[in-house]
Amino acid sequence: MATSDYPNLPHLSEHQVHGQAAERALADAGLEFGDVDGFATAGNFPMYAVGVCEYLGLRPHYVDDTMFGGSSFEVLVEHAATAVEAGVCETVLVTYGSVQLSAMGRKLGTGGGVGAPSGPMAFDALWGNTLVGNYALAAQRHMHEFGTKSEQLAEVAVAMRTHATKNPQAQYSDPITVDDVLSSRMIADPLHLLDCCVISDGGAACVVTTEERARDLQKTPVYVLGAAHALTHHMNISEMPDLTVTAAAQSGPLAFRRAGVTPADVDTLQVYDSFTITVVLSLEDLGFCEKGDGGSFVEGGRLQIGGDLPSNTDGGGLSACHPGMRGMFLIVEAVRQLRGESINQVPDAKVAVAHGTGGMLSTGATLVLGTEGR
Amino acid sequence: MSERREPKPRPAPIADPETEPFWSAAREGRLTVQRCTVCGAAQLYPRWRCLRCRGQVEWVDAGGGGTVYSFTVIRQNFSRSFRHLIPYVVALVDLDEGPRVMTNLVGVEPDDVRIGMRVRVRFEPVSEEASIPLFEPT
C-alpha cells in the first residue's frame, strides 16, 4: 500500500494521481502491473473503474466499481478479499485518486446543492441545506438527546491535529486547542470551521492478494480479519431513521463478529472524520462506547497517541488530507500501524480497524485488520 | 464578476409522474402525504408501495402541523440561490402524520429555534409553476 503525494497537486491530473498511488503500492509490495489480475476503484463517473483500467493499461478479469461514497474503499477491499479467497483472482489492485482541491480552488466544501431537484432527491434538495448542514443536523440532535458539547466535538479535531503535527505532508500541522476550534467561525450550527475536514488533492492504493502470495512479497502482510458494510439512506438525510445512529451500528458488529474480535481488542482506529460528529457517532456505533457517551469518550486525549484508542494517526481528514473520499487513506494508515511504519506508531499494534462513512452520513463500511490471520 | 454575485431564484422542483401530485398540491397550498390503504401509515417521499406493509398507497392532505426534530443555521453557502439568505434555518420536521421532511424555518430568529418546537406549514412560490413547503412556529 501507499499514498500518493498530497495535499496540493495542481500539476497532476486525477488519473496521474491514480498512477502514482498504484505504482507506489505495487513497488511497496514488490509487485508489478503485470502481476495484477483484479482491479477496483470508485469515482464520480459512470464506468469509472473501466476508465482507470484503460488508463493504467490493465486488462484484469476481476473489476469492482462499487460506489459507496467515502467508505467505498473499505467495501472494495472487502469484495477483493472475498474474490481472492474464492479463487476468482489472485492479486487485486485498489486505487483512489482525486484533485478535488485544485479543481475547486477553495478549501472548504459546504456544497451548495447536495442533490437534484427531481425525483426523491427533490424532497431534500430545495431548502439550501449543505453537506456540512447535513452533519450539523446530526450533531444538533446528538447534543439534544445526550447533552454532547461543542467542547467534546472539538477534542476530536484537536486529537487529529496533534497527530498531523508529526506528518510533514499534512495540509494543516500547527497545533490547535479546544478554544481554537470553538472560536473558529460557525459554518452550520453547531459545527465550526475546525469541526470540518479539509479539502485536498491526493490518492492512495493497496494490493489485496492470497496469503500464500503475500508471504513471498517484500513487506510483512496484513490480514483482513473481517469486514462488513451497511447503509441508512442515500442523499436525503430526512430518510435517516435516527440521526444519532449511523450505518456503523450495522457494519461494525457484523465485521467484528466475522473477525472474531471485539472493540476491546482494537489497538488503533482509523475512522472517517469528515466532521468531528462523524467520529463521535462512529465510536458509539462501532461499540467503543455506549450510544450517547461518545462525547465524554473522546475527552482527555483518548484518541491521541498515548491514549486508549489512538485514532487517525496520520492526522485524519480533519487536518492531514481529505480529497473527497478518504476511505483508502484509512486503510493505508491502518496497515502502516500494523507494520510498525506509522509516523505516530502505536507500540505493538496487532489489530487495527478502518471504518469509512460515505455520502450524507449515509453509508458505513468496517474493515478489521490484523498482524496475524484468523 | 458582478453578474456572478447576483442572486438566483431558489431551485424549483421538477415533477415526474410519481411526485407530480405532491408538487401540484403544493402549488395550491396543500401539503400532502402518501397514506397506505391497508395499514394507514403515512410516508414521504412517494413510493411505489407502503414501506411498512407493502400495501397500496394513496395521496391525502396532511394537517400541516409538525415538530422540529433537528435544525441547523446555515452560515456559509456559496450557492447564488441561497447566499443572500444567510443566516437561514434548515430543519427536519416530523409531521403529525409521521413522515419527516426537510424544510426551512421562517418567521423566527435563528437563535430562538429549538428542537421540539411546534411548527406549521406555509408555502413559498419559487417559480411561476411551483411552490415549496416552509414551516413557521405556531
Description:
The complex is a heterodimer of chains A (374) and B (138). Chain A is of the alpha/beta class. Chain A has two domains: 2-102 and 202-221, Peroxisomal Thiolase, Chain A, domain 1 (3-Layer(aba) Sandwich); 130-196 and 224-370, 3-Layer(aba) Sandwich (Peroxisomal Thiolase, Chain A, domain 1), CATH 3.40.47. Helices cover 36% and strands 16% of the residues of chain A. Chain A has 14 helices and eleven strands. In chain A, the strands form three sheets. A five-stranded mixed β-sheet of chain A has the order 1-7-4-2-3, with helices on both faces. In chain A, helix 7 (150-164) packs across helix 11 (276-286) and helix 10 (248-259) packs across helix 11 (276-286). Chain A starts with a strand and ends with a strand. The mean pLDDT of chain A is 96. Chain B is mainly β. Chain B has one domain. Chain B is 9% helix and 37% strand. Chain B has helices at 2-5, 20-27; strands at residues 32-36, 42-43, 57-61, 65-74, 88-95, 100-105, 118-125, 131-137. Chain B starts with a helix and ends with a strand. The mean pLDDT of chain B is 96.
Regarding quaternary structure, what we see is heterodimer
Mean pLDDT of chain B: 96
How does the overall form of chain A come out from the CA principal axes? globular
Beta percentage of chain A is: 15-25%
Which geometry of chain B do the CA atoms define?
globular
Kindly report the greatest chain-chain contact and the residue count on each side: A-B, 38 and 38 residues
- Number of DSSP E strands of chain A: 11
Structural class of chain B: mainly beta
- Derived from helix and strand composition plus strand pairing, the structural class of chain A reads alpha/beta
